[in-house]
Amino acid sequence: MINVYDELKLLIDSIQSVYSKATRQWEYQGSNTINLKKCQVCDIDINGVIYKSIIKYVKFLNEQSADIILKLPQECSCGIIMTRVKTQNSIESKIHSYNTPKHECGKIPLNKCFNDLFGIRIILTNSLRFDEISSFIAEQYKNKYKCIDSSKLDYKATHLYFKESNYSFPWELQIWNSCDKENNFASHKKYKQAYTDWEKESMEGGISND
Description:
Layout: H1 4-28, H2 49-71, E1 79-85, H3 88-98, H4 110-113, E2 118-124, H5 130-141, E3 146-149, E4 158-162, E5 171-177, H6 181-201
Helix pairs in contact: 1-2, 3-6
């Protein structure tokens, strides 16, 4: 019988396969010219190359999303799988947020800020603690993936990051437990409301430089 770890591995391996293919397609377009480790959030200009590259990648993801979803497991007995592409207003809000003293006034590498332009979420029926997931990932994949406990206040989750190189935008896998679902969705709703409020306060509806 397939257990939760077997299915989690199947999902991770499927994401890696699709991510690698999408990254190769992105590279083929000649679009991966920005070193996401060396460039920082404070280097972003609304009319500049970095911002345009981020938006171009999001457009690429939206164009590929149907194919990506089809290549991920369609049924998973251990939980529910969801996907999403980050929206432009959420991206702009994040840039604004990272250009504040809370985030070193934007002196943060792009690959740490934009590590979730494409996100996959699995809500596990049978709960797993972070240390259980982390140990499983370390045993199965050694140092291939960054696995962190992203729990904060009411939000409880383990996040796993896929990355090919410093020139490829990472993807994020959120691993939730079913018992945390309601609080996590409420937390996401608060975050969404925060950047919606920010949009209303911005006269241009775009990026503020303060």
